[in-house]
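FW: tagging you since you asked about this chain on Friday. Here's the raw sequence from the shared folder, copied in full. Didn't touch anything.
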Amino acid sequence: MANKKKYTPAKTGGVAKLIMIWVVNAYIFLMMAIYPLYYKNKYYDMCDAKWIFYRNVSAVFAVLAVIVLFWYMGCFIAGKKIKDFFKDAYKNMVFTDWLAVAYLIVCCISTIITSYKKTVIWGCDGWYMGLVAQVSFVLVYFFVSRFWRWDAINLCIFLMSAFAVFFLGVIMRFGIDPLGMYVDLDEYNISYFVSTLGQTTWYSSYMCIIFPLGLVAYWCTENRWLRIGFGMFCVMGFMTAVTQNSDSAYAALFGIFFVLFWISLESDEKFLRFLECVILALASFKIIGILQKIYAERMVKLDSLSIFVSQSTVTDVLLVVVVLIYLFMRFYVFKKTEFHITSLKIIRVVMLALIILGSIGAVVYICIHSAGKLPEKRLASGNYFVFNDNWGNNRGVSWRCSVDGYLKGNLAQKLFGVGPDNFVYYIYANYKSDFDNILGERIVQMCAHNEWLNALINVGLFGLVAYLGIFIMSFKDCMKKALNYPYLYGVALAIVAYIIHNFFCYQQIICTPTIFILMGMAQSVIRNGYADECKCQYKNVGKVENNNVGFSTYSSVA
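HL: got it, structure written out here
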């Protein structure tokens, strides 16, 4: 009688994990490559279409992931090692993971105690940032960080999709509308919608967190042809940055370049690459400025800041100066002298101090000036240096009412908030007349137009600390490991851009899932390295590499 084949939990668990990797990779492909380009009924149903895509794709992924996860755990139960599974899963938790868990718990508590039960689960219509969305962000982060693998092909696919979005964003600003998105839209709405993402604020959020991936790829890649491709991506990114009509994007770009400058002072070659990035930016701005003058009659009307950046003499002079500095450093200083850029590291500390002091000084000046305590004539009401209810496209009234509303809340609301996506119900219950006076009765402000202030209202102080902590710790993790994996700098810059940009904007169903996916990708690289460094490249499934078992180490596919 033939011997029965011995059941091996390790082999079966390895297959389960391999399938999970495929499932997660398929999900990421849909979200990073297809999702940005997907739309339905042009701009009329953009938010609903994006939400339905995200909800349905995530729901299918969740069902498949749970099935495979239970299969995976069943292998440990069969092997009588279920304790080892949980022990190893616990051991592989990092502080960023715990913050994500804490945020999830706070969101659940906030949902339970809120007085606004009708919308807290799914969120407000047209926004959909309720409990379901918050839970999905955290779960996506965990699955991606455990089961996704970073490789150059994935990166190129994501950037090609973003390039298409950016390209549409640029040409549509010059009246070229291949998808017919602007048909039947008036001039006012045309200036506030672009590409396949909808509102310019949504578009700029996406641009600010995807663009750094290509910028860092250009900055660190050695292959000439790849650098040419990444350089073209950067040019298109800079062009769309100056034509998408969002001032907050410039603040995010400043943050991106400051961090890139900081890390570029580590070597002469990195600093030269940094200067190349600056040259690409300024040259792209000037190309757009030239096109704006040639096709002035076709150009979509832009704000004064965008026109200044693309057409002013200041950026002309800066471009010439940076090119001369680059040539001088490359062909004389670094070749014919013994000077090295690392000797100037102190500059970055000085610049950081100046930025901090300058920011504090600007806030103090705005407060004093807005209170009418300065002798000079008051500036116009729409000026950046006069804070009132109209400040920042009416962000003033949102911020004022949000701070006042938070301070007037009870202890539970201060600590746990009023429930995910319940800002509008809580604030409008107390400040409707304030908003109506500024926005009119037909327009409803759905959020604070400051993600961190909005989080303070929705999930309270505990939720804000946990939520913002996810970004800060993920940035720290990326910077710590980026010397070994330079592409992590791209995620680090994306996090900085998201934090800065969304100081003036908000959570939404396009950029927030994307940034959580990127943070999950970064954690995956930190845990497992790049895909080409993973042992056996998904072969020999079932071989246990060491004596540990669990989420990260069970089978060679890790």
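FW: Confidence is low (pLDDT under 50) at residues 4-10, 535-558.
HL: agreed, and The two ends are 38 Å apart (CA to CA).
FW: great, closing this out.
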